[in-house]
Amino acid sequence: MPGVRRLLVASVVAAGLAGALAHGATPGLRRRKTLGFGPTLPHSVFASGETVPVVQAFGKSDPFDVAKAFASALTADVVSPASSFYVRDDSYTDKNTGVTHVYLRQTMFGMEIADGDINVNVKDGRILSYGDSFYRGTVTEPQGVDVHAEHCGNLRAQLEEAVDSQRQYLAVESQQAVLGSHAHTPGDIPTLFDWNCKHVGTPYGMLQSAKFDASPSEEDPSQALLQFMIAATPEHSLAEDIIHNPQQYLEKMTVVPQDSLVQGDRSYSRLVHNVPDAVNPVKARVAFVQVPHGDSTSLELVWKFEVEMQDNWYEAAVTHAAPHRIVSVVDWASDSPMPIQAPVPKEPRSGATYNVFPWGTNDPSEGNRTVLQEGSDKLASPAGWHSLPYANDPQSSGHLKNQKGFRNTTTTWGNNVFAHENWEGENAWVSNYRPSGGSDLEFDYGYDPKVTEKSDALAEAKKWIDVAVTQLFYTSNMVHDLYYRYGFDEVSGNFQQHNFGRGGRENDAVIANAQDGSGFNNANFMTPPDGQNGRCRMYIWNTAIPYRDGDLEAGIVIHELSHGLSTRLTGGPANSGCLGWGESGGMGEGWGDFLATTIRSTKNYSDYPMGAWAANREGGIRNYPYSLNETVNPSTYKTLDKPGYWGVHAIGEVWAQILWVVSHRLIAKHGFSDSLFPPEPLADGSIPEGDFYRPQEYDAAGEKKPLVPKHGNTLITQLVLNGMKLQPCRPSFFDARDAIIQADEVLTGGENFCDLWVGFASRGLGPDARVDGRTPWGGGVRTNDNSVPARCKSESLN
What we know:
This protein is α+β, with helices and mostly antiparallel strands and 798 residues long. The strands form seven sheets. Strands 1, 2, 3, 4, 5 and 6 form a six-stranded antiparallel β-sheet that branches. It is 27% helix and 17% strand. This is Extracellular elastinolytic metallo proteinase. It comes from Irpex rosettiformis.
């Protein structure tokens, strides 16, 4: 172990500026800087179907025992006898499909390998699929590969190439959402490059100048954390002051040991207070991570940090030994049947009413507002949208906290969502302004924004804050209830203050900021692990007069909330680090676009742009509208090789376009449902088939099979969510594709096998598609494949 702590690290630094806002240098506004990168592990695999090795027949044994036995056999080639693993406590059985998702974490010398993951999907004693990134080696000296410098050289080349060939797109991608009105020029390259790579040599310089101790205390993460804050802070002056005067910051930081040993993991957990530019104490623990060198990997001892800042929430790995260099970093901020007799309030009220743009109306250009009854689904939200237990209520304190029962609220405050204004753009939220519906819960407010001088446009937009908060509350609750019915429930990590005794971790409703004052022309979502509140921030867009409010464009809200969905479902609800960069990070964006587009679509086919109303751009904020017409949207898997497609939003729109094409294969085969919402459960908790599900089927043992949505658009929604649960942490396009195909095998017996393959292959993601020279930030050379498996040769690609 002492030798491990002396090792230098092959580090990677930030690959993409995902957060510069369109307001540029507008006084008083912040620019959102974000880092997101990490090693690509060459041995990581996802196997499903016939590629799963047959270890032994387990029968209908306990699925957790099956998974552990399988993992033991699978890792028999692990070289070090010091290696072991444990079952993470966020493993669960999906009550809709009967699949048990078991998450295993590897340890070495009793200490976790933070990226050593195996996820095993088990049903009826059979291994359906698994992902594996376990380390298979001895604890040897890392090879000293300096991926950091290599990465930054490639990043500069990519930025220059993107500016030369796709100026307009880089403006959109690097600013996260907008905007067309500003294109980057070669003069902007130093800014983009500096944000990612300015401090590539800083750890060496500080060590050489004796600013940091070359042999820091094994139990004190302060130096490593301060080194990370130099790279993470968007404040140039603060970074420079830390570099020149680190001691004054170290003296203010206090480290408090935490008793948080989990299942034998010797994690040396700490809580660090008074960290510059952090808004809360930083969680720190010691762990190993894997660092690749060629086709091999070695272990590096690191400090793992959870750093909540004003505009970011980072999970970072920084080398334990000096010089303290960043190995990986994920920004949790992304720019973007149980019994019906579950406990409910003793005196439930009649539902609220809201004057809003109805569900399915994407924005004000598509229709008018109307007064709607509270649409809470009784299975997803048994207490409705305006009730929560006193014990789980952040506004209740003292004796109220110990009071039994539910609190009924009269504002946009409930079990699933806390919605409010945030004009100050700060992290405080409990006491922020919320409209009141009174005792009758009537949220009915006028909306008639006026054309003003630009200097008065922001004040005019703020006049309609009641409308904005009400719409955000309504849309967010509808998304919660919809995703719940497709399987994003308590045990899989959804967002609720109270879980009605259904499992999972509580106290994590979505904090939804309307008209967030920290910027313009943007939206983002922060997804910490299950049990911590997600945070959605919606912004005003200054792209037209009157200004346009992002809270009123449902597609943007749905996109952001879908980050919480995909992050919690991929790799398990307690692991928020699985969609941080490259193809994985891109798909995190793409799922949001696809689901938002699916929700707004109708049986009368149309192409759809993303963010067109808010951005005041007919073509929206992506390269292309989502379309089945290849002349309108020519995106294929190979498109990811083009200049400008290194960022997660560009990668994401390719994934969303592929899913859009796949979905319409199923719609052509199964038809279209006007509503994505399943029917309400009956009094006994069972779900009626109605015109939504196929007739209930039973297996040979007489047990009910999973209910299968009848129509193409409902079926693909179910398969996409089920696929997220099956795929591994840090999935590739290939992994996510295979997980969706396997989800159909579990749900329907594989009746759509060829339809799915034809859809994927039509955009280059056939079985022989490949990528050579994959890089952590999404680079590589891709080869399209338009073929399909042999059993599907008779299917048409049209």
